[in-house]
Write a structure and sequence with these properties.
The chain has one domain: Orthogonal Bundle (Ribonucleotide Reductase, subunit A), CATH 1.10.620. The C terminus is likely disordered. The protein is built from 12 helices and no strands. By secondary structure, the protein is mainly α.
């Protein structure tokens, strides 16, 4: 019997290529942006709340692990053209996020050139290990992670608006749209897997969502402090994860809560803990 999760199966090859072309064409028409031109850098707030700057730096840390995200996941899907092409495009967009977050930290004077260089050095001293060891596990994880990241950026944007920084609010809006598009792509891929093997995919979804942690931040000695700052600002916590990540995913994939819970009683692990 053929493995329904084989990345080079004809069904997945055709499905992923179709999804990638739809994603790419839509991005080219509606989502491409230029950091130098599309962010009102002249309106940066140089007296921003340090707590907000700490959260921006935390997001920057997550984005800086891009070489590991790309280098370790791409070999899993290299034989599937649509999937590997999406992953390369995803890396391009995430590199923009890293650049623009770092630009804001410097332009706002929340961080100096020396502090940013030290941050980069510390990040590259450790390698990020993927949370899943299979393509289907990774795409389910990415589906949840991209939606959770969208919510982080969306809620931080509200804080930027409240504290009077149009530049930060604008760049977070641009990033948020990208993250939402990434989530939609991954969700569509998970739907393909559900169509091919619903019981097997459901078990993977249960496992990933009930053990989910946001990537990379806890690798740093002050990771717990950074996660606490995110929670204290009301940007993301366990309740938000359940309400705005898990439930919308189950609804979009037409998975009833009882079907999700079937043969599984473990409660959700707090994100990042």
């Amino acid at each position: 019997m053929a493995n329904p999760f084989a990345v080079n199966s004809p069904e997945l090859q055709a499905g992923l290529m179709r999804l990638y072309r739809e994603f790419f064409d839509r991005a080219e028409k509606k989502r491409r942006w230029v950091a130098a031109d599309d962010v009102p850098w002249e309106s940066v707030n140089r007296e921003m709340d340090p707590a907000v700057a700490d959260v921006v730096e935390s997001f920057c840390i997550v984005e800086l692990y891009l070489p590991d995200y790309i280098g370790k996941a791409l070999p899993m899907v290299r034989s599937n053209r649509g999937w590997s092409s999406f992953h390369a495009n995803w890396g391009y967009e995430e590199s923009k996020h890293s650049l623009v977050l770092g630009d804001w930290l410097l332009r706002s004077r929340a961080r100096s050139d020396e502090e940013m260089a030290d941050l980069q050095t510390r990040v590259f001293q450790e390698e990020y290990e993927l949370p899943e060891d299979s393509p289907v596990g990774m795409v389910i994880y990415a589906m949840a992670q991209e939606l959770a990241t969208f919510i982080h950026y969306r809620n931080l944007r509200v804080k930027a608006q409240e504290r009077g920084d149009p530049a930060l609010a604008r760049l977070l809006a641009l990033i948020s749209v990208d993250e939402r598009a990434h989530h939609a792509f991954y969700r569509a891929v998970v739907k393909l897997f559900l169509d091919m093997d619903r019981p097997g995919t459901l078990e993977q979804i249960r496992r990933v969502l009930t053990t989910f942690k946001m990537p990379a931040v806890l690798m740093h000695t002050d990771g717990s402090r950074r996660i606490k700052a995110v929670k204290e600002l009301g940007i993301f916590d366990q309740d938000i994860f359940g309400r705005e990540v898990v439930l919308p995913i189950l609804t979009a994939l037409d998975i009833k809560p009882r079907e999700f819970r079937q043969h599984h009683t473990k409660t959700f692990a707090p994100p990042g803990n």
